[in-house]
Structure formats: C-alpha cells, structure tokens
Write a structure and sequence with these properties.
Layout: H1 3-17, E1 21-32, E2 35-44, E3 49-55, E4 58-64, H2 73-88, H3 95-102, H4 110-125, H5 129-148, H6 168-179, H7 186-208, H8 214-239, E5 255-258, E6 266-270, E7 276-279
Antiparallel strand pairs: 1-2, 2-3, 3-4, 5-6, 6-7
Helix pairs in contact: 3-8, 4-5, 4-8, 5-7, 5-8, 6-7, 7-8
Length: about 280
C-alpha cells in the first residue's frame, strides 16, 4: 500500500477529528461490483480507534470502532458500500440539483446563479486533480462576485472599497454587519460569518491542494451556494418593511400594507384583528 495513500488517510482523520494519528494500517481489501475497497485500522491520540474505508472510486469515510455498530471489517465494508452506492446514484446529490434545491426560495442575481451553474457543470465532469482544483477556483470567483455586487446595489456598505477585491473575509464581514446590525443579531452575525469564512477557506484549499477529492469539491460548492443564498435571504429581510413587525394590538405577524393617501407614513393593517396603525418608513 503506497505511502501517499497512507498520508491521505492520516490527513483525512486529522482533518475530520482534529486529532493526531498514532498508527494506521490497511486491514483488508474487499472487491464487489467492480469496486475494490480497503479498510484501514486507525488509532488516534485522543479520539480512539476508527475504521477508514477508501478506494474503489467511492468517497472516503470513517466509522468508529468504539461504537457497537461495526465489529468487523466485513461489517464496515457492507455498511460503507451500501451507503456510498445510495449517495452516488441519488439524482438529488448531483451538483446542479444541490444548487437548485438550496436556492429554490430566493432569486439569486442572474450572473451569480450562472456562475454557480457553470461550477456545477464543471464539477460533473471533473476527474483529474487539475479539474477538481478548477472547481475551487470557480467557487472563489463566485464568492468574490457576490461581494462585488454590493458595489452597485441600493445598500451602502461603508468602507467596502477600503479593502482589495480579493480580500473576501474583510469585505464579507462589512456586508454582514450592514445586513445584520445591532446587538440582538450578534450570534446570528457570527453564524453567517462562520459559514462565509468556511466556504472561502475550503474553496482556497480545493484550489491549491492535490489531494482533495471530487466529493470534497461537492461540499465546497454546497457551502458556496449556502452562503450566497443566505445573503440573498438577508437582503430580502433588509428590504422587507414588515420583517419582524407585530400588530400593536394582538401581536400577530399576519400584516399587510394598506393604501394611505393622507400621509407619507405606511399604513399597516393586521389580518387577524383588523387593527391599523401608521409607521414611519
């Protein structure tokens, strides 16, 4: 078994579990339906012992030896093989369907959606390392385009031009701070920023790594689509004058804006109790 494969297994465990590999060795290799899968026995410094299934053109995955589910390498192989077959042949897991599913409730800007679709098409055809790296490059470009779109929008993101166009993290932080202002949004802001930083870091990793797999590239596209869709939802929230509004009489959020020809204020009416009140916009 090559040292390169051993390094990939060790790196995979270290990344997934955030621990150090003490020892790793291949226990057995099983062939079924043209797929040759090797089960590795891996022991770590603080996360116990794990089986790692790899090879056969299937995604690498890990299974705990400390749980009473996988007693033997045969049981690990059976579970791993069945799981991966379902994932590989599920139509919904194709990248273009992931893009459509995640973004189905919002209208992503046409040029950004086009970039996501092109990335998904590239991902469908990717086999070699360079092709997988190209997916990372396209994800990076799409994320940068997302930030650029705010330069020509109705939202004023202060100090956005103080940073270089490639400085995604600082620019997305300013954007999120603008869309989610105030102390009540502190934890929400952090969650969205973590998602954005994670998408950017993985896109960079995919771009420069020679060991990342096609399945990890799919995760990268999923994260990019998720943060772009999240920003679109926040834009809808930002411009929705009824967002968070409650009836001042009964507390319902089932409200609508009625015609008001007498003042410049909004006339908000409750569908539940028919109470109306004015709000400055």
């Amino acid at each position: 078994m090559s040292e390169i494969l051993k390094e990939q297994v060790d790196e995979y465990i270290g990344t997934q579990l955030e621990c150090k590999v003490v020892s790793s060795k291949p226990e057995t290799t099983i062939s079924d339906m043209g797929h040759e899968v090797t089960i590795w026995n891996v022991r770590t410094d603080k996360e116990g012992a794990w089986w790692v299934a790899t090879g056969g053109g299937l995604p690498m995955n890990l299974y705990s030896q400390d749980q009473p589910y996988y007693f033997t390498t045969d049981e690990v192989f059976s579970f791993h093989f069945g799981l991966m077959m379902r994932l590989m042949y599920s139509e919904e897991t194709r990248p273009e369907h992931v893009v459509d599913f995640i973004s189905r409730e919002v209208g992503i800007a046409a040029d950004i959606r086009r970039k996501l679709k092109l990335t998904a098409e590239k991902l469908n055809e990717a086999v070699e390392v360079e092709e997988i790296q190209a997916v990372g490059v396209m994800c990076r470009e799409t994320l940068l385009r997302l930030i650029d779109s705010f330069s020509n929008s109705d939202i004023i993101v202060k100090n956005l031009e103080d940073f270089k166009k490639a400085d995604f993290k600082n620019r997305i932080e300013l954007t999120i701070n603008t869309l989610l202002p105030g102390s009540r949004n502190k934890e929400f802001r952090k969650s969205i920023k973590d998602l954005a930083y994670g998408a950017w870091d993985l896109a960079n990793n995919i771009t420069h790594s020679s060991t990342r797999t096609i399945h990890e590239a799919r995760v990268c596209l999923t994260l990019c689509t998720s943060i772009i869709t999240s920003i679109e939802h926040l834009l809808l929230n930002y411009f929705d004058v009824l967002s968070g509004e409650q009836c001042r009489k009964c507390g319902s959020r089932d409200l609508f804006i009625a015609e008001n020809d007498e003042t410049d204020e909004l006339l908000i009416v409750c569908e539940k109790c028919n109470y109306g009140y004015l709000k400055q916009f």
